[in-house]
């Protein structure tokens, strides 16, 4: 490597470091110009600042996979809000949405003339074959819908204190569908965690959320050689609590391998495991 090339490399390296430090100082990262086939970006640059919005278009005989004939995306801390993609004008992108149904084949693009079949979700039926056809780059509208079998539940699942349901709310729940409850810590489901829609009613609902952990009293047994607490506390299952050793006593920490004035206890299987401080005269 010649001296001239060496200095050129050194200058480029320093400029790169300065650019990285500048981005770190600002708290935001820039985006590189996205590359994709059969399309272009406006305005065209190598790098784009955080918050920059650009438009993209496709070459003749191509189109954006989602938008009509142009698309838009924004740089957000080094990542673009979407990935641009140009497909053949006669191809179709994502299929239409059929409530309570899913396409039999899920892929990014579909060829012209393809007939896509939809299957109803559990608890729903149609009585007819539901399909949409990709015709010259556009989907035809499905003629039929999926209807709930039996008697659906039109009211939301029963509320359980200190709990949520792990799936989004629906205005209607099909016969034989279920929801799952989850309690906020330190609570735990008491009984079954599921509720089922049967004949228009919710059955098998959890009894409630039970506090799961250890109740630690203010007064501690003298055998542990730790000070009494200012007040009783509750320690959630699996969590730790700190205790102060009595004067003249210290607790041996097996992790750091030294003696300390503060001892650590833990709640396991709803039983508080107290630490024991040793005499340190």
From TrEMBL:
InterPro entries xrefs: ComplSys_Reg/VirEntry_Med, Sushi/SCR/CCP_sf, Sushi_SCR_CCP_dom
UniProtKB keywords: Disulfide bond, Signal, Sushi
Secretion signal, residue range per the UniProt entry: 1-22
GO biological process: complement activation
Record-annotated Sushi domain positions: 29-88, 90-148, 151-211
GO MF annotation list: complement component C3b binding
PROSITE patterns noted in UniProt: SUSHI
Keyword NAD annotated: no
UniProt key word Glycosyltransferase: no
CDD domains, A to Z: CCP (cd00033)
SMART domains per UniProt: CCP
UniProt-listed Pfam families: Sushi
GO cellular component: extracellular space
Name of the protein in its database record: Sushi domain-containing protein
